[in-house]
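seq:
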Amino acid sequence: MKPYTEISCYAIVHPLLGPPIPNQGGAFRFRGMNVIASWADSWDHISVSRPDRCPTWEEMEQVKRAFFLSHETAMQLHVPPTDHKNLHPYCLHLWRPHDAHIPRPPSWMVA
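struct:
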């Protein structure tokens, strides 16, 4: 994930979480979307939500480009139903492990 200094321009004070903590995470407002980001516990994690609908693919891509370094791969996951928790109807997530490489399919399969 980008250093906090590069994303601090989007930082907000969250009503429950308070102000961002530079080495842990915080709340951000980016192009009309609510973003909660954390980069602790060996993972980068971003929750992206809108009040009226799920973010589009294009919006998630904009968030990825704004919050992650250009060479980093981030992922969305579809976990088994027993592990799925839906706390907000219009929220999507991006993850990136710190200590592992995310495997990717061959480039010809990604279109």
